[in-house]
Amino acid sequence: MYLSKLFIPITKDLPAEAKIKSHQLMLRTGMIKQSSAGIYSWLPLGFKVMKKIEQIVREEQNSIGAQEMLMPTIQSSEIWKESGRYDDYGEEMLRIKDRQGREILYGPTNEELITDVFRSSVKSYKSLPQLLYHIQWKFRDEIRPRFGVMRCKEFYMKDAYSFDVSDEEAKKSYNKMFFSYLKTFNRLGLKAIPMAADTGPIGGDLSHEFIILAETGESQIYADKKIFEIDLNKYEFEDSSLGQMRKDFTDIYAVTDEKYNEKKFNESVDKKDQIKTKGIEVGHIFYFGDKYSKPMSCTIDDKSGKKISVKMGSYGIGVSRLVGAIIEAKYNNNVMKWPKSVSPFDVVIIPSFNKNNKENLIKAEKVYHDLKKQNIDVLLDDLDENMSNKFKKHDLIGIPYQIIIGSKSEGDRFEFKELNSESAILSLEDIKSKLKN
Ligand code: ATP
Ligand code: MG
């Protein structure tokens, strides 16, 4: 893609309404545009990043055997009356009437809808376990939408649901999701800490929030650094190993302020390993047994022919929030750098030229086509601007690699730079092989 042709409305001014880095950067680099409070359009650059995140989330769900489906955004109020949440959910739920006067709503989450799907078709323990998920827009009429895509009214979420015959079996599904979440966040270049969360009025002990460290987060966290030393690769994808994995992670002290106990923190964590900072919740997993299946009569026959309520859990990842969360975690010294896995482009070519001397631009176009042929997703900065402005702009956009075609390049050797490190003069072949691994 040529930068001159890309729809990327970069603005020079700092947007006044944006309080945190990710929100400022997303507006300045034209990733999003606010349409009304807490509701955004995703412009090409932002959309590209979000789609890459979505794809990684999808692959890691599929790899634990979860099956993708798609439920609608609009739901009937009937099922929410059955579960008892229609009144309880309160003002965060956007309630609408259709032309017949029927009460409908824009789904803030999907426990009721999936339970309804499930009860109409599954009747026997023989079909269990099941893991189903979708990636779909949600709407919550947040009282204070803020921080750009971090707390919106309309946001994009992956939500999965597990169905099991017993608590015992349900724990296995929970552990699979726990594993999949850790792998997902690793691939996104994030260090996410699973933290025991309140289960609220539902009770039970199985609920974890996945939180990444960032000064601008909304949760205060206390954790033991050792949690980052656990190597996920040592666990096998089978029940006892995954059980051990959850134990290893949850034995290490890591809590949000709701569960913080100063004495316990100081006793169980070495001073040098204590992390006290803010964090951003990027995922939340939850086991709630028959909370929805019971009132909604979602039953199955167990082995002995007895009717039992199916045991369920739900598992969310904030896909659109992650775009902002990655920026918050990665922004450093006024330079943005996307992890390779979600960067909007693999590499940008920055030629030094002007309207009287386009030699470097012509060279750049050759390199561009050469890289394109190798399926490398490349951006060519073909705008006639001075180099210092160009570098400033690319510090904002954060493409992790740059090929600079200026005074230092000669023949087919070019200046190649990974953001936040020194540049080197490399042949095109070496550049290709660096970009490909
Ligand atoms: P929070 O505590 O941040 O309000 P929640 O507990 O209401 O979140 P869940 O219902 O667990 O959120 O939703 C799953 C995930 O969806 C969250 O971990 C978060 O990443 C994302 N999410 C929730 N609310 C929003 C929102 N208003 N805007 C963007 N993402 C959100
Ligand atoms: Mg939560």
Q: What does the overall shape look like?
A: globular
Tell me about the largest β-sheet.
9 strands, mixed
As residue ranges, the low-confidence spans are none
Number of strands: 21
Strand percentage: 25-35%
Average pLDDT figure: 95
Bound small molecules, which ones? adenosine-5'-triphosphate, magnesium ion
* Fraction of residues in helix: 25-40%
How many helical stretches?
12
Determine the structural class based on helices, strands and strand pairing. Answer: alpha+beta
Gyration radius, in Å:
25 Å
Distance between the termini: 21 Å
Please give a structural write-up:
By secondary structure, the protein is of the alpha+beta class. Helix content is 31%, strand content 27%. It is built from twelve helices and 21 strands. The strands form five sheets. Strands 3, 7, 8, 9, 10, 11, 12, 13 and 16 form a nine-stranded mixed beta sheet that branches. The two termini are 21 Å apart.
